[in-house]
Amino acid sequence: MIVAFLALTSAAAARASPVVHPQQWPRPAPALPPDPRLEAQIDALLARMTPAEKVGQLMQADIGSITPDDLRHYPLGSVLNGAGVAPGNDKLASPREWLKLADRFYEASMAAAHGVPVMWGTDAVHGHNDIPGATIFPHNIGLGAARDPALLERIGAITALEVRVTGLDWTFAPSVAVVRDARWGRTYESYGDHARLVAECGAALVEGLEGRPRTSAFLGAAHVLATAKHFIGDGGTGGQDEGDNTAGEEELREVDATPYVAAVGVGVQTVMASFSSWQGVKMHGNRALLTGVLKERMGFDGLVIGDWDGHAQVPGCSSVSCAPAVNAGIDVLMAPGSWRDLFVNTLAQVNSGEIPASRLEDAVRRVLRVKLRAHLPEEGRPSSRPFAGRLELLGSPAHRAVARQAVRESLVLLKNDRRLLPLEPRARVLVAGDGADNVQKQCGGWTIDWQGASPNDEIRPAESIYAGIRAAVTAAGGSAELSPGGEYSARPDVAIVVFGENGYAEGLGDVPSLAYGDEQRTVTLLERLRAQRIPVVAVLLSGRPLSIEAELAASDSFVAAWLPGAEGGGVADVLFRTSDGAVAHDFRGRLPLKWPRAPTARGGEPAGPLFPYGYGLSYGVKRRAPR
Ligand code: BGC
């Protein structure tokens, strides 16, 4: 009995502290030069702040649970709008309402004695996607396929500008997870399964959002704070959201850390801790990785934010009390509805010394450093800032054109028998499948609604894939008939069938297998058309590779379109020739992750992927080799 107990406690102890060797981890060159003036400014602020005001900087509340007035009693340092949360509890609130509320929070924070402005974070993860009217880009998985860092930087800059229009300061993007198992519901938030690809894409987006470090653009009036998330290893948990990454230290360092090294190297100012665990230890309580590796070894001098009540999952903690997370290195606790009691308890833990004074000072210093670097005190009220209220920038034609370019570049051609593509636009085209005229399905999760359930008319401006096809063919003298079920009034020359996954986000998108549930209906439709000798182009909408062997066999051409967002016209740009017969846009997307085969009939592991990483056909226009 005693032996068993000892064995148990030593096993628990071993799980509690997997060994990390920070000195073996990479150390990027500092993105910014030391700034003694900035540090002196922080010293002066710190000297003026009471313990309660300092603790306040460590908390972030959700706007659904806090009012600007509350800041008078609880001097919190930041707020967020969680997914689907909007001013006045109205998800369709106008951008002006967002700006008004940002002003009210700002003014309330400046009325406090310390005069440190509050900042507001949002999940602008594929454009400013909580705001009706914003430009909606493809989700990250498609941008990983596009492999175009300059485009990513542009997308980051546009997103930043649109966030600025609404007076917000900070986006919780990019996710730089290196996904290893596509059953994970956050696969589409990842740029792919290769660390270097994810690192390159993530760093480019950060540069677009924040502006390049050591230039005057950096955190200037057109930019916002970015967040590399979720530190670390969230993509390696066997397809389970908030799961356990059991990789050894070397894999964690070589794979999962690579994008963070790149993001820190371009000056990312905030990093979000992961809900997941590494070798059984919750990341929110992992001092060795948060402090030893990220802050001390990599030299990250911005702030670490926890995820949505993520501290509550640390052993011994609850959503309203968690000194271990602060002591491990979390600087800001995301405490959406739990902030009030958490504030009281954290203050008591500071007063009792459970949270050492040095840790409190360091955390607040980091928060203030980020706020000062972002020029928050000088910038004044959100509505008085240069791009605030410039509603014409939200979803502007120029921004939408970049989103459409991103759609074109993200498409991956998996099959093209007898060179069916590119199509002649002067043709009679049948557009079928439940994804054909379905902006909701194109956009997926994190688009007004967290789970991607916003009705089509809530996502505007937008063009469905069908609308884009119709525009292309009618301009050339052809015609397009929309029929989700595949019936037609006049025999078509070709059918384009658009199908795939319905929206999901986070753990609700975890699946036990890569079947998408609608195979039977889709394959029947494809086969029915082919039986009538109508050539068939299949277009798959999905946040991940799916089991598509039967659909591939039943179509002549097959395009993986990922979750392209609101600019469905980009699909027609690539599928069709121009009216004078030229190919304006070739396929240039390459798989950002391997495409697995379906498990064998006996449930065994199939040999090799269906398509390898980097795969993608094109019309034959000369191109660079896939990386
Ligand atoms: C997600 C984060 C997100 C946060 C705030 C969490 O559930 O894991 O990625 O930034 O919510 O909305």
List keywords for this structure.
10% strand, disordered C terminus, alpha/beta, Rossmann fold, 627 residues, TIM Barrel, disordered N terminus, binds beta-D-glucopyranose
**Tally of DSSP helical segments:** 20
Radius of gyration: 25 Å
Q: Tell me the number of strands.
A: 17
Strand order of the largest sheet: 12-17-16-15-13-14
Mean pLDDT: 95
In the CATH scheme, what's the topology name of the largest domain? TIM Barrel
* Low-confidence region ranges: 1-14, 622-627
- Cα(first) to Cα(last) distance is 56 Å
Number of domains: 2
Instruction: Name the CATH architecture of the largest domain.
Output: Alpha-Beta Barrel
**Major β-sheet profile:** 6 strands, mixed
Bound ligand species: beta-D-glucopyranose
Portion of residues within helices: 25-40%
Q: Assess the beta-strand content as a share of residues.
A: 5-15%
- Molecular shape: globular
CATH H-level name of the largest domain... which superfamily?
A: Glycoside hydrolase, family 3, N-terminal domain
Structural class: alpha/beta
The CATH class of the largest domain is Alpha Beta
Plain-language structure description:
With 627 residues, the protein is an alpha/beta fold. It has two domains: 38-392, Glycoside hydrolase, family 3, N-terminal domain (TIM Barrel, Alpha-Beta Barrel); 411-575, Rossmann fold, CATH 3.40.50.1700. 34% of the residues lie in helices and 10% in strands. The chain is built from 20 helices and 17 strands. It has helices spanning 2-16, 36-48, 51-57, 95-111, 140-146, 149-165, 195-210, 249-256, 258-265, 287-297, 323-328, 339-352, 357-373, 376-379, 397-410, 439-443, 465-475, 519-531, 549-553, 569-575; strands at residues 59-62, 78-81, 119-122, 170-171, 227-231, 244-245, 270-273, 277-278, 281-282, 303-305, 333-334, 412-416, 428-432, 479-482, 494-500, 536-541, 557-560. Strands 12-17-16-15-13-14 form a six-stranded mixed β-sheet, sandwiched between helices. It has a five-stranded parallel β-sheet with strand order 4-3-2-1-11. It has a three-stranded parallel β-sheet with strand order 5-7-10. Strand 8 (277-278) and strand 9 (281-282) form a beta hairpin. It is globular and about 80 Å long. Residues 1-14 and 622-627 have low confidence and may be disordered. The structure holds beta-D-glucopyranose (BGC). Residues 80, 82-83, 123, 172, 229, 307-308, 506 line the site of beta-D-glucopyranose.
